[in-house]
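Exercise 7b. Backbone tokens:
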């Protein structure tokens, strides 16, 4: 067995995580020597009597050959912390995962222009709008989008990246051979079909648990140059990701939201504690000292949308700031419903506005 394969073996034993594995390496000098150590030596290394007995029982029953065959069958690869493919950013965590299981384009681990986009599972229309807008502009600016494949903001960020022909990394709280939640199977499949990457520190076949998601969140933070919280409640898991990012000196960005919404409390509280308030991708690029030429060009194009009549311009002015329903447009413009219907149909044909699946209208450049 190679040193890499001994890392693989340790990753399957639930009693040894990154911190304890690091202690074993420090004591024995290698994963192989740690794996083959005698009972007394393992106890002396600080493994503890109970864990030592559990590990010895696990070691007797474990087959490297069968497990390697299993991961190859589901087309999964792995990198260990000493491999050159292991992400440099991730090593900056206090206890980085000593192994990453990977499915898809493993070369994405080498990219460092990455940003984590996280938020609530119960996304609002406002949250969806800002997530799509910011993700689209960040992808255009060359960022790889990192998220957790959860419902809501995560799914929106991944799907928007795929729609924009960008690259994205999903970090799971289960084995990479399965999609969780099942509702996002389409995104999971599309990610792999379009040469993106799915990673996890958890072994193939492992189901998600309550404890696996905080671990997943810290990896999102570790893989990301910065983290953006789009929308979330005060107790949102997205805030755990933001806190993990702050611990390792990463910048945290937050989108301000309506004070009447409980799902704006997370980002608003982060802003009050020092997170950078952002209203567009240009704010992020400037804070990271990056060129915002591509974003500026796109934003200028958006501002250049002009109506051919005063009524058309009234609708465009309303949609500059938010998506609105048909009834809201009628109410805010004071134009009769029949005329608004005709105007919107004409403007859709010209590409000035478009109608979302929810029925709300947005500017055609969004």
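Sequence design result:
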């Amino acid at each position: 067995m190679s040193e890499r394969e001994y890392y693989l073996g340790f990753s399957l034993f639930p009693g040894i995580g990154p911190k304890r594995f690091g202690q074993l390496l420090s004591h024995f000098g290698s994963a192989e020597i740690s794996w083959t150590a005698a009972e007394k030596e393992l106890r002396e290394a600080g493994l503890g009597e109970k864990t030592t007995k559990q590990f010895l029982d696990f070691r007797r029953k474990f087959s490297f050959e069968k497990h390697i065959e299993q991961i190859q069958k589901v087309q999964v690869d792995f990198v260990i912390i000493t491999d050159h493919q292991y992400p440099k950013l991730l090593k900056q965590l206090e206890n980085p995962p000593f192994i990453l299981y990977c499915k898809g384009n493993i070369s994405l681990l080498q990219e460092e222009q990455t940003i984590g986009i996280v938020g609530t599972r119960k996304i609002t229309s406002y949250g969806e709008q800002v997530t799509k807008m910011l993700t689209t502009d960040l992808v255009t600016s060359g960022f790889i989008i990192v998220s957790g494949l959860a419902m809501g903001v995560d799914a929106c960020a991944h799907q928007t990246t795929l729609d924009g022909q960008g690259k994205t990394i999903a970090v799971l709280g289960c084995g990479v051979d399965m999609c969780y939640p099942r509702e996002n199977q389409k995104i999971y499949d599309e990610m792999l079909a379009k040469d993106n990457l799915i990673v996890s520190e958890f072994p193939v076949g492992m189901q998600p648990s309550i404890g696996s998601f905080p671990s997943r969140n810290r990896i999102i933070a570790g893989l990301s140059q910065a983290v953006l919280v789009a929308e979330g409640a005060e107790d949102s898991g997205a805030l755990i990701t933001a806190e993990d990012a702050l611990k390792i000196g990463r910048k945290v960005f937050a989108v301000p939201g309506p004070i009447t919404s409980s799902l704006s409390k997370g980002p608003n509280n982060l802003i009050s504690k020092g997170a950078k308030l952002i209203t567009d991708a240009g704010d992020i690029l400037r804070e990271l000292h990056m060129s915002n030429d591509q974003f500026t060009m796109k934003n200028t194009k958006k501002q250049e949308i002009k109506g051919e009549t005063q009524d058309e311009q009234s609708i465009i002015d309303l949609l500059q700031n938010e998506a609105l329903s048909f009834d809201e447009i009628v109410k805010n413009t004071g134009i009769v419903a029949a005329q608004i219907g005709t105007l919107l149909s004409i403007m859709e044909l010209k590409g000035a506005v478009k109608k979302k699946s929810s029925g709300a209208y947005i500017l055609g450049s969004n």
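Instructor comment: DSSP finds 17 helices and eleven strands in the chain. The longest strand covers residues 99-104.
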